[in-house]
Amino acid sequence: MGYYDQHYPPKRRKKKSGWLVPLLLGAILGVLLVTVALPALVDTGILNNVEQQQNEQSSANDSRNKSSGPKEMVNVDVSSQITEVINQVAPAVVGVINIQSQMDFWQQQEENSQAGEGSGVIYKKTDGSAFVVTNHHVVEGADTVEVVLSDDTHVKADLVGTDLFSDLAVLKMDGDQVEQVIEIGSSANVKTGEPAIAIGNPLGLMFSGSVTQGVISGTERTIPQDFNQDGRADWQAEVIQTDAAINPGNSGGALINIRGQLIGINSMKINQTAVEGLGFAIPIDSALPIIEELETEGKVTRPYLGVEIYSLEEVPQTEWDSTLSLPDNIKGGVYVWSVEPLSPADRAGLKRLDVITELDGKKVMNMIDLRKILYQEKEVGDEIAVTYYRDGKKRETTIQLGEQN
């Protein structure tokens, strides 16, 4: 008995010859192609063009590889209108140092110490002297004031005058080293949304000459001010609102427009963790008359009545009827707590616990209303009609305004 494979050899030899013949034919055709067709391709230049394209592609790849390496530095001029304006205005914005004398307990002698820093603006130079405007609170309580110029030169300055209600002060110093005076603009035509630039010394002289840019956020804002820190507003300052960053130390610095003109004196900022981008400046149009009066007179003279007053809203409603005997139709006013002897109010017959409700026919709801009428509409020597209530009865009198000392 034989195996199945021993009867199958003829078919296996036929399968082997099936792949050998095509292989031999392919080899013969390849040799003929190389020996006959290659010289013809070289003669026509086709291979040369292919080689040239490959070389060009290789060069392009090398160029891209080189470009991904270190790049050559290129100097670009980034000067703009803003940088030009800053270069022009910056020398006119200075630092202001508040120096106060303190007693050294151990050595029993006075020593000068720096009590605070702020900013200021050189607005005038005449007869060898330069004048700087800053904030009242920057120089408040100072025994000596130093002005620090843009080149870090320290110059002693005299305090010419200061005003609490406007938060403005004027300094006078030697003008020999002063080269730049700021150009005064106008705050009357300032528009919401236009560019605004603040220049000053945030956080002290370490960051002197700092510049922040923003826009005018509002043109007619009023901010309550509490001068004696008793929790009650004593005055409402009219200010320009901007989102240009204004930090402690910027106070007294310049708020300028895109032309480099002074439009406001930076004064304060709402320092709350939930509030950002609220900076305020005193409009230059309202500041200029006060600056001029401080420069010439050393103080701002305002008319006064000679009374200590408080807003009626601070009195419990039960006292309106039981103590002040006010009619039900009275919704606001100021009550007189004391009357200064021989003052205009004393001469006109006002007494303690009188309630003033009108001045010159204009309603007075609180002491801010009263002060605005006196300070913004009246002058020393003017007469003013006063409507008030005493023991529930309406009365009127005329007071000739005196000078506040």
TrEMBL record:
Record domain PDZ: where: 289-392
EC assignment: 3.4.21.-
InterPro entries, per the entry: Chloro_Bact_Ser_Proteases, PDZ, PDZ_sf, Peptidase_S1_PA, Peptidase_S1_PA_chymotrypsin, Peptidase_S1C
UniProt key word Transmembrane helix: yes
TM segment ranges: 20-42
Chain positions covered by the region annotation Disordered: 53-72
GO biological process: proteolysis
Pfam family membership, one: PDZ_2
rRNA-binding found in the keyword field: no
UniProt-listed SMART domains: PDZ
Enzyme class: hydrolase
GO molecular function, one term: peptidase activity
Assigned keywords, A-Z: Hydrolase, Membrane, Protease, Serine protease, Transmembrane, Transmembrane helix
Family: Belongs to the peptidase S1C family.
Protein name, per record: S1C family serine protease
Species this protein is from: Virgibacillus dokdonensis
